[in-house]
Amino acid sequence: MSEDRLSFKEMCAKFDVTPRTLRHYEYIELLTPEKEGRSRFYTPREVARMVLILRGRRFGFSLEEIRQWLEVYETKGSTVQLEIWVQNATRQIGELIRQRDELDQSIAELKKLRDEAQEQLRNP
Questions:
Q1: I need a labelling partner for 95 at 20 to 30 A (CA). Which of 1, 79, 103, 118 fits?
Q2: DSSP code per residue over 17-52
Q3: Domain with 94 in it: what CATH number?
Q4: How far are the Cα atoms of 56, 58, 97 from residue 52, in angstroms, in the given order?
């Protein structure tokens, strides 16, 4: 094996993903490993794409959004891809802020209810 390629097993280990996840990413065309017989090998391009995929997932983007964004690079280049990234990131930041606000509200409400229950236990 060439040193600039990772095997299927090495790719799973490098990114701490299951074989099922890696096969799924290939199935939905997020990754296109080189194939030699039944073996798959991942080039530096695929490794870079995997970094972007996992980062996108961590930020809450859907796999379809990530796939479309990666496809833009292939068809329209990096400038258009960056423009789309800024738009998507701005939208996702708003969504994450909304989710954080909901969590903050839920936490505050839960603390209030817990404190009321503790008070009832102290003063039956």
A1: 79
A2: --HHHHHHHHHTTS---EEETTEEEE-HHHHHHHHH
A3: 1.10.1660.10
A4: 6, 10, 22
